[in-house]
Specification:
It is a single chain. With about 70 residues, the protein is mainly alpha-helical. The protein has one domain. It contains three helices and no strands. Helix 1 packs across helix 2. The protein is elongated and about 55 Å long.
Length: about 70
């Protein structure tokens, strides 16, 4: 179970969409979360990795090494 407080304008837009399509506001809120959750996870992990590199807790790998190791090419 999840409860959200949304800005009034977003709530109005969500309500209008639900009424126009015959679906619930919960349906569209769930769809939006599912659509963007992977992006948010990737962003968080990338930011965390960057902090680790800057703090010296992790090292970078040259792109050429990755291409060679995994055989990725043009």
């Amino acid at each position: 179970m999840l409860a959200l407080r949304l800005p009034a304008e977003i709530e109005k837009r969500l309500d209008a969409l639900a009424k126009r399509t015959g679906r619930s506001k919960s349906y569209y809120a769930r769809e939006a979360i599912l659509e963007h959750l992977a992006d948010l996870e990737d962003r968080y992990l990338a930011e965390r990795r960057w902090q680790d590199v800057r703090a010296g807790r992790s090292e970078t790998v040259p792109l050429a090494d990755l291409v060679k190791k995994y055989g990725v090419g043009d």
